Amino acid sequence: AIANVLVRIARELAASGIEPPLRVVKLASRGTEADQELEGAGVELVKDERLESLLAEADETGLPVVVGSTVWSLWKQMRDINRAETEKESGPEIPIRSLFDVIVIDEASQMKVPDALIALSSIRRGGRVVLCGDDRQLAPILHGSYPREETLFGSAFTHFAGHFGRMALRESRRMNRALVRWPRRLFYQGFVSMDPDRRLSLSSEATPTDPLDALLWDVFLRPEDAVVFCSYEGFRATVRNPFEAGLVARIARLARGGMMDPQTGDAYTPERFRSHALAVIAPHRAQNSAILGELIAGGWPRDELPVVDTVERMQGNERELIIVSYAVADREYAEREAEFLLNPNRFNVSITRPRSKLIVFMSDEILRTVPGDEQVMTDSMAIKGYPAHFRSVRQLEMAAPDGTPVRMTVRTRSLAGP
After folding, report:
1. How would residue 90 be classed by pLDDT, with cut points 50, 70 and 90?
2. Integer Cα distance of 366 and 231 in angstroms
3. Exposed, middle or buried: residue 331 (CB in 10 Å: 0-12, 13-18, 19+)?
4. Per-residue pLDDT for 273 more than 70?
5. How far from 4 is each of 88, 111, 314, 318, CA to CA, in Å?
6. CA distance 91 to 87
7. Cα distance between residue 418 and residue 411, in whole Å
8. How many other CB atoms sit within 10 Å of the CB of residue 96?
9. Of the four, 287, 291, 380, 385, which is 20 to 30 A from 265 by CA?
10. The pairing of beta strand 405-414 with beta strand 225-233
11. What is the pLDDT of residue 269?
12. 248 vs 58, 110, 138, 221, 278, CA distance in Å?
């Protein structure tokens, strides 16, 4: 998330022509996979321990610096800076050193209140705070259950929004008009797309000749269909579903061969395909592993594999095409996991990651699940009502890996529809 924000800031600054230019840096004690995207994007990687000298240099020159950091990298530097100050002073209490004029907390809906207070304690007198988040998406992971009104035990966004109010999300600069419809109905009143006609760009020369590939291409990858929801019955699975894994991998390979980069108008490079074109989301790591195994078995180079991960990994990220594989196709298992599987916030994150197209695979057993908890049952309607959102319906039958016939209902929502 930090890398995404800093790259966008650097890009916007470069386009704005602001003089003198702002310096954009990321604290990094060691490089991560996400940090590779910073190379050539106008963002510097600096060691954590350089923070104090970096800020001192900005104060001396008058040239502002934008610093991206995790809370814990910041905390370590605050601790060391104040420890050094303590050694210089003789008083019993040394005030915490203030560092920043503006504090921006991104993904504040996933940050716990105590963690946010670490960042807030570094602000200078008269400084400003901006919290960016969405409590309709995933909340922080808590070890325990607390009443909803006890906001100190929830996210920083929810807690501070309850005290100071919030600005509602009104515009999507990511999704097209068809993709915003269901989120607008459930979560964001008045939500509109600022790029309503964006669609998947496919090569006219990539139409497959294999009969099954040609069918999948026509059913799942048509650019005019922005959302494809496929439910099915006849196959049983829990957290690892070879039927869905095989379908997802096959569609992903077709997308790799046919998708065009809207930025260049040419075929995607392997690097940009991974970072911009496609990501696959599944709630369980076992299904992620099964999908990756199918991709590798089909010849996808290991060093070019797309992101195949959980919803948590994809929050704050986006791709042209998102494929969601719910995997679970067993009623009893789905009911045991209903609070997790049918969580509306998790579903909301999943369906709001794409820019052009969304494909969702979900068994009828999940849709038929009757949670025992009243609140979970109420929350589950975000998913259970989803099939009624579609106008076009098509029936198919395919064979599972073990030969079992699987009856599929494919629902689509087109860009041209109401």
Report:
1. low
2. 9
3. middle
4. yes
5. 39, 17, 12, 10
6. 10
7. 15
8. 12
9. 291
10. antiparallel
11. 96
12. 49, 29, 24, 12, 11
| Res. 6: pLDDT tops 70 | yes
**pLDDT higher at 29 or 109:** 109
* Rounded Cα–Cα distance for residues 192 and 259 (Å): 26
pLDDT at residue 92 greater than cutoff 60: no
Length of the chain: 418
Q: Residue 130 — φ and ψ, nearest 5°?
A: -125, 120
CA distance 29 to 33: 13
- What pLDDT, in 10s, does the model give residues 101-116? 999 999 899 899 999 9
Judge whether residue 148 has pLDDT over 70.
Answer: no
pLDDT at residue number 88: 61
Instruction: Give the integer Cα–Cα distance in Å for 53 and 274.
Output: 36
For residues 43 and 375, give the distance between their C-alpha atoms in angstroms, rounded to a whole number: 45
And the tokens for 174?
Answer: 């990511």
Going by their DSSP bridges, the two strands 100-105 and 123-131 should be labelled as parallel
> What are the tens digits of pLDDT across the range 338-365?
999 999 999 999 999 999 999 999 999 9
Task: Provide the token pair at 203.
Answer: 């090569």
DSSP 267: B
User: Which residues are paired to 46 by β-bridges?
Assistant: 27
d(CA 362, CA 228): 11
- Residue position matching structure tokens 């104040």: 82
Tell me the C-alpha distance between 386 and 374, whole Å: 19
Which two three-digit tokens encode residue 5?
A: 């924000």
Instruction: State the Cα–Cα distance between residues 191 and 323, nearest whole angstrom.
Output: 23
AA identity, residue 46: V
Is the distance from CB of 24 to CB of 10 less than 8 angstroms? yes
Q: Is the pLDDT of residue 91 over 70?
A: no
Question: What would the mean pLDDT of 62-68 be, rounded to a whole number?
Answer: 91
Q: Report whether 169 contacts 134 (CB < 8 A).
A: yes
Q: Which of 34, 131, 117, 44 is nearest to 74 (CA)?
A: 117
Report CA torsion sign: 337, 326, 242, 363: positive
- Higher-confidence residue of 17 and 252: namely 252
Q: Is 260 left (phi over 0), alpha (psi -120 to 50) or beta?
A: beta
> CA triplet 306, 308, 314: central angle to 5 degrees?
105
| Average pLDDT value over all residues in the chain | 91
Strand partners, 67: 25
Calpha distance 380→221 (Å, rounded): 28
Does the structure show a pLDDT above 80 at 274? Answer: yes
